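Before any further analysis, backbone shapes were mapped to integers, which produced the following:

***
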Amino acid sequence: MEFFTTYGGNFLAYLGVAVAVIFSGMGSSKGVGIVGEAMSGVTVEDPGKFGQLLLLQALPATQGIYGFVVGFMVMVTTGMLGGTVDLSLGTGAYIFVSCCPVGFVGLVSGIAQGRVSAAGVNIVAKRPEEVSKAMVPAAMVETYAILSLLISLLLILNIH
């Protein structure tokens, strides 16, 4: 119990960074993989569509970037990058909770966006001129990832 009262704030803050980066990264990697699987068959049949398909594959990658940004902001704001930090238990808990929106929403939305983008691959396969109609539904999923990023950043900017 002494460890937690002495180092608990630091531990929770580091755990928050891990949640933001790991879960959003998992969502992005799964989403990018789903689209990659869908686009490989189309690319073999028509290599000229690769550029359009790559745009669809890049969309679910953003959640991982958002998680990284939040993790980096926490590290800069708290001084973690500079060495030793001494955060209270309350501050550590606040940081942990601040990292949760981007981590958990990034996990779910990265996978969902991968599925929607993979469905868009079928549109591009049959009608490449309609690529924008494939991207709009995938971008709608992105809205929620951006909102979670915004909430996490607003919370982090209020660390005392």
User: Anything to note?
Assistant: The longest helix spans residues 2-45. The helical segments are 2-45, 50-58, 62-78, 89-126, 131-156. The two ends are 25 Å apart (CA to CA). Residues 19 and 103 are 6 Å apart (CA to CA).
